[in-house]
Amino acid sequence: MILRILFIVGLVLCVPAVFVLDHALTVGPASWALDQTTFWGTPIANFVFWIGLAHAGTFFSAMLLVLNVKWQKRIAFPAEISTIAALFVAAIFPLIHLGIPQRFYLMFPMGLFRHLYVNMESPLVWDFIAILVYLCLSIFFLLIHAGSLRFPSLVAFRRPLAWVLFPLVLWVHTIVSLDFAITLIPTWQGAYFPIYFIVGALFSGIALVLILSELEGRRLRRLEDLLIAFSWGLLALWIWELMTKEIWCPEILFFGFLVPQLLWIRPLRAIPTIRVVIAMSVIFALWWERIKLVMPSDSEWTPVDYGWIALGWGGFMAIYFGLRLVTKRIFSDRIDTISTEVSVEPFPKKRMALYWGAGFSAALLFVAWFILRVPTVPWVRMVPVFFPLMALVTGFLIVVDAFSRVLNRRVLFGLLGGLGIILGIFGGLIYQGGKTTFDESPTIITTEKMPAIPRPAEVIWKSRCASCHGEDGHLNRKFVHEFYPLPRDISVSRFDSLGVDSLSKVILDGRAFMGAYRGRISESEAHSLIEYMRTLAKEAP
Amino acid sequence: MDQSRRNFLKVASLVLGGLALWGCRRDKNFAPTPKASSDISLWKIEIKQAMQRNISLGDLVPIKIPGPLLKFSKEINRFGMSIDLDICNGCGECILACMLENNIPRVNDNEAQKGRFMHWIEMREGVPVMCSHCGDAPCEKVCPTGAAVASPDGMSAMIYPRCIGSRYCGANCPSKTRKFNYTDARAEGLSAKFNPEVPLRNRGVMEKCSLCVQRLQNDRLLAKTLGKEWRGMGVQSACAMACPKKAIVFGNWLDSESPLSQAVRGRGVYTLRSIAGLDPSVVYLVGRA
Q1: Could you report the predicted ipTM of this complex, rounded to two decimals?
Q2: Last residue of a domain, one of A436, A454, A485
């Protein structure tokens, strides 16, 4: 019942979120608080926060599974769902943050396709790839877990996949921290940033999972112990930050460190409400910490900045509780109890090595291909994307292997074919891309610089056209060869067949590689240019 | 029967709710587009407004005279500028010339209140500050799409159609000279195309001083057509041309005959402390060396 109420609360929160989202996309980055010197605002802070919350799900489902922690199965399934919900929410924020969100696909590492290349030196690209891979593998992991209820033999595949996810999670948050640590901004620098971010992420994530498990009506004492342990771990890093950069916030220390210490007191700890409140205080402290980290200046918040809270929690609650209700309806309560109790033979080591090897060589091939296409990229910068790519291929092979055992061949090939078609469509769309040329309405162009008296065509030809088309009209081959595919040679018959109107349109508005000259050449000048070109064509040998 | 009515009501209310949301959406073209004005006095007013801000300059530290770029060590050209602070009186003529040359838009009142002007040249404590075109530019390293990219002749260039507006370059620029198009100046009628050779920028695109690349490019094409070796002799940036005291000198660092190399001879070469280690191409001259 409580799950259903919270699902509805999430949906209700989505209503203001939709308006905020719409406003933010219409007005652009000017709609949220940014000042003269900070270009990154609350969306990036919220992104880091939600990615951090997502990590906890994987921590409980994959890391603790690998480490043979017995109690993890009591919380694994809700944690996995929360990972996916939090990741979806997290992925929205960087897209909103972009100045031109519809151009986000330019970050796909496609080498020199379309004459656009991705800068592999940029942490944002590492981030983009790592998070995409993380989302894919989290979905795979959930699929295997849910599938193992129907086909118990799938349980054998959980552990190998968890071994892929374990390092990936640490890798992802390391890269998120590098977004900051790699810059020249003094408050963002420090070699401790990766560990600082990972500890912070797990701390807030554990608090979230604690709340979720309370909602399921389960109390996990170990979670509370972990919360205390991580609060001390983070305190150490906060002290480090205070010593090196003299940054400290009393409110973060209070909500993030002092409040969780209440868990030492047994009678208080026994009350579920107190536990939830403590977890909420931790989540708040960590959220505020990310905000303070990304935008240290006190710029005035707009409604949009507050709207991210509705967007984040509304989206998370709607997705999480929606999925939870659906899975409860399908699997009833079996999902939390049976899954790991089935005894299965361990995954053969040889096959595991094969998949890792395949992933490794696929990533190596990609890196080699990229470096060959874009030789200026320093190869060291490919290291951060190497592991996520490897993990993606390895994880995909494990999932295909898993489902090839339980599913009918035809169904499996159908699914793979469908996936291929979808990827093909998206790949094609990205390859086609959007328009990268400027379409300026010529009405804005002021004609102040245009001479009142038309200049002689010969002068214009020599100053404007001859650099490519050659003084005699037969192309400046030395120059044109270097840059463009050669245009057709001029001839009188071709001139007559094309006509003055279409030619002047080409001169004024451009075509293919010919630049547009509207504003620099008037229409009457264009006409006289065509006449001049005709005489040049007549002189042709 | 009862069940189906219940379902019908559910679906109908969902559809109606969705339609209501759709109906409430913001209409982009609610206000009529104001007419674009190309009255230069409007630009002058804005420059005056911008010059009243108090932006701290930070320390100036001495550096070596810029030499060949590490990335492009075989190139014979590296363009740059020197600004003689002994002569400069901070009049702001360069800002206007720059805006007219590069079609820099004005900003609306809201943005002006926040101090977010688009001016590529900014007066900080009476010193004109623009992008320094660092040889080892931090902005180029973090741009995800390669929109901020080094050109072989020493410019830290911006390719507008590649820019997706992640603003990472701006966040990583120590001298904070990158400007982001927060608003659609064209739609608000705040931009005018004074110079047909420079495109107007869209909302969501980063921009900054381009060292008047269009002038260099025109000259380069001409030299190439004539088959001459090109060292950029005779080209001047808009700010250098407009400076009434001739404090700004544009030229080629690698050409010992260029006006820049001659202006720097025997002078103390300085730059902002924050970018001193990044091999800037635009430097300040103070006193004698």
Answers
A1: 0.84
A2: A436
